[in-house]
Structure formats: structure tokens, C-alpha cells
Amino acid sequence: MSTQTHRKPYPTDISDEAWEWIAPLLAQGAGPGRPRTVDSREIVNAIFYLDKTGCQWEMLPHDFPDYRHVNYDYLEWTRGGVWDQVLSSVRELARVAAGKAPEPSAAVMDSQSVKTIGHGDARGYDAGKQVKGRKRPIVVDTLGLLLLVMVTSASLQDRDGGVQLGDEVQQQFARIKKMWADSSYRGELVEYVQLWCRFVLEIVKRPAEQRGFQVQKKRWIVERTLGWLNPFRRLSKDYENTTTSSESMVKIAHIHVLLRRILPALYLL
Q: Domain extents for the chain?
């Protein structure tokens, strides 16, 4: 269901063109059950607003649907894998618009550690980055478009998280033949990939003579993707009770980036 609202727009509102792309993925399926009475587009607008501004659910502006409706649909779409479907659909559009195949053949892996607010599951301490909270290992394609995100305790070693991500890559992206990662993924993960994976893992090492910041081969791609997510205040710390919800917030932020920045620019080429 989609209706025209009469409120003043927020900068985070989804555009008419973008809504046409994703509306079919959010449509209520046929069958028994109570018909929707809340505008799905306004639910998406509210979720985008929350992810970008970092507000609490009950602090959503009153010209959105009641926050309990918004939270209910957010959780239902999370449990049903809807955010994965939307991300996959929009990512494929972006790749085709850039002259790429719909599915990638190469990828880049990295992780980001963030503090939590003191509750929820999977919390730990990342001794290397001196962060108590959670870790966000991600995999992106060579355009920097998000393929996978997996939220874990910050105490999980990168190489261990890399094993789990490598397995997911094999299951979901059969075309990938090459992956790059930084030196924190060296050692056992390299051996694991050689034995069990179809793709080749290349470790991008920092030059011994390097002093200060220097762009490194392929790694800058995934670091740029993490930079795209920085303006989303909901991601500045991990506020979610569950890692599943944390992963959804990252996916939603990336969907928002693609719909508002990447796709329009690509279609103008």
C-alpha cells in the first residue's frame, strides 16, 4: 500500500523513482490475514530517518506512523530477509548501470569495531583497536557495494570471522574467484581458503617503508564503503539488542546510500 502524504518531506525520504524499485519487494503477499492499514512507504521513510539520525524508536516524529507499527514492520522485514532482497536488487541495478555483470567476480573484505551501549548479546573487547563492543566484518565488490555484513563480538579474531564470511561468500556468490583482505586476515584463514574455497585470497600487506597514510591496493575500496556509512548516526555505536538487528541497520544504511547517491549518478553516465 502506498499513499501520498501531506506532511513536509524529510531529507531522508525515499524518492518516487527509488520507491518504484523497491515497493514490489515490500508488498504484502496474497493470502489470509488482515490487510495493511499503514503506508509501507512511510514505514520505510521512518526507518531511513531513524537510521540516519540515530533517534530512538519512540522518538520518531509524530507525522510518521506510530513507532510501534514502524518497529513491527522493521522486525518482520528483518526476520523475513527482506532487507537482503532489497539490497541485492538495488546492488544489481547499480552494477548493471556501471557496465558490470549483475553478480561480482571479485570482492574485498575488512572489519570495523564499534562500541555498544551496555546491553544486548555478543559483546567483547577488541584488544587491537581497544574497543569494547562489537565487530562488523563486511565484504564488498570492486565498486564498494555491500555484499555481506556479519556482526559479532569485538573479541572475535578477524581470521575467525573471515572463515565464516568466506563460507557465506561461497554459498551466496558463486562467481567470486578473487578476494583481497588486509594483513589481519593472514595465517590460518589463507590456509583455510586454499583448502576449502573456490576463490583465491590475496593479503594486501603494508609496505615496510610506509610512513603515515598511504592508499593501499584494493583496501581503499572497502574503507570507502565504511566511510559512506559514517553519516548514519545509528551506526556510530551499536544500539541494537541483537546482532541480527545490527546487521539490518548496516544493510538499510547501504540501501539508503545506493538509492540516494550511487544509482542516480550511475544512471547519468
A: 16-79, 101-267
* Local confidence band at 213 (pLDDT 50, 70, 90 cut-offs): very low
Amino acid at position 234, single letter: R
pTM: 0.89
Q: Which CATH number fits domain 101-267: 3.90.580.10, 3.30.70.360, 3.30.420.10, 3.30.565.10?
A: 3.30.420.10
Tell me the pLDDT of the chain averaged across its residues: 87
Burial of 68 (0-12, 13-18, 19+ CB in 10 A): exposed
Query: What is the spatial distance between Cα 258 and Cα 183, in angstroms, rounded to a whole number?
Result: 29
CA-wise closest residue to 106 among 14, 13, 204: 204
Helix/strand/coil percentages in the chain, nearest 5? 45, 15, 40
